[in-house]
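User: ok so my PI wants both of these folded by tonight, can you help

Assistant: No problem, let's get them done. Here's the first:
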Amino acid sequence: MRRVYGLGVYELRPLETADLAANLPAGSLVWQELDIPAAWSVDQYLLALQIDQMNMWMWGNADPKKRGPKPRPLPRPGQGAPSTRDDGKPADGHERHVRRIEVQPMTIAEFQRWRAQRFSDERVEKSRPLAGT
């Protein structure tokens, strides 16, 4: 919110925050984290397309006996898991965890019970030092 709108999340009412979050521009960090097509802006898609076309042009103009397999296009956001190696790990060596958010209709009472829960981030819990040490 601060990067795009110059506003802090806690400076707004919840519905205002939700409205602004839903309308973040393409290329925002939220869309990148969710790995959806809006993770890239138009210029990033055009650059990837240009790279793909250049790779195809170079492959097409190479000697057919020496050129190897047809080049694959660059992976785009929202296409799912990247290509893997023979050992099942991603080709670039980085593990990717994709979280999909789905609509879950609920009543106001169900929503209030859900909001009353205590949430914690297991990544934060692991990094906290033990008390008394």
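One down. Here's the second:
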Amino acid sequence: MKSTLAFLSYTAAARATGANICCAQLQDALDTKITLPGQSTYNTTENSYWSLQEANLQPGCILRPSSPQDVAKAVSIIVGVDGCTFAIKGQGHAPAAGFANIDGGVTFDMTSLDSTVLSHDKSVLSVGAGASWLQVYEYLDPYNLAVAGGRNGLVGVGGLTPGGGISHFSPRVGWACDNVVNFEVVLGDGTLTNANQTSNSDLYRALKGGVNNFGVVTRFDLATFPQGNLSVTKLAHDISQRKAVFQAFTDIVVAPKFDVDTSLVTVLLYNSTSKAWVISNSAVYTQPVVNPPVFAELAAVPSVSNSSEITSLAAYAKEAATPPLNWLFATATFKPSAKFMLDIFDILNGTLYSFNPEGGIVWSIALEPLPAVLVSHAAKTGGNVLGVSPEDGNSYVMLLSALWPNSASNPAVDQISREPVAKIESQARAKGLLQKFQYINYAAPYQKPLASYGAKNLEFLKGVSKRYDPEGVFQTRVPGGFKLA
């Protein structure tokens, strides 16, 4: 026991020493682009995370690069220092501690790399990895153009895209990652390179779903398409209307010909303080059509509020920032069944209703269509590694999330959050409704989304890692996120 404690103490000290040496060398090479604890720029980055779990980590220093070359130089320095680890942060949406920040190592705050440049023929938008989707949409709106990107404009391009990326436009054009025509990326040896269908095509495919396992993406070149205003309907229903809402949701998902202009998120919200459930629906139609027929059944369900508007993508994506709170995510994917959605609610209500930690907690269970037509687009752009195909049929994704203010409740919240997910998956499996796919951008740290891509894709990812990162920099020096081992 004493030897184990001594070893742990030694390795912690080694990491601290490595970080100090690393930060000193980075400061020598990159000067004011490196900030240290207590400095205002360091504090700005620390205060920008969406979750308290991430904000509470304390890196030894923070890099705010102003060019891809800065990133390349930093990686080259870091890999030369034993014990130096790093994390990569975009807009800081990932809730789990360590996914975009690090204790004692180096955090790359990519938000200064946020340029947006439209190609001469307007077919490709080059976006710095630190940009938010709102920056992208505000840039493109005057051109009547869009790209497949995040639905919340405050989410980052660099975080969402390598995990797949569900967009309002995904049924029409595929995952966000399927619309990347080129990645500019810094590899584990500090090399700055590009990956696309004709150059490093295996890396190109791996980056479409493989998250932070291969390099630091510094720029995304995204395919654009014509886009004007959207039709947006927001509905709220009393929980007593859940059967009708779930049936309307399911009828949209299972339609013989899924309407590719449809973007729907149905959310079960529960507040432990008021002990009240409510159902909200964000029903977006990507054409300027008032009361689109695809949502007629849903709109006919008696509601407590109902608003519609025709608006621009940028205006709709400009959501209010969430105050810093503790967060968690977990996910699963199911074949459509209105009856099983009722089972999901019963499980959630049975496990969450009586849990009321100090300060309260809000649970949000989002249900989002994953139609076969959405995943069919991947084959047109070199494929991805997500492991879903049209043969899987129409599905829907569940995102269970929670927000709460009291950090002392974190272990209890984590424990209780696992219970409904496990029960829901168990029942779905028994009924033949559980799909293997776990959407990595929604996954909990204890889940295995990379394995859910299938054995063949996982082996492919491991092979690409060995070819482009033979020293395993992004498996060992970037400990956050989902690793290939």
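The longest helix spans residues 2-30. The chain is about 35% helix and 25% strand. Good luck tonight!
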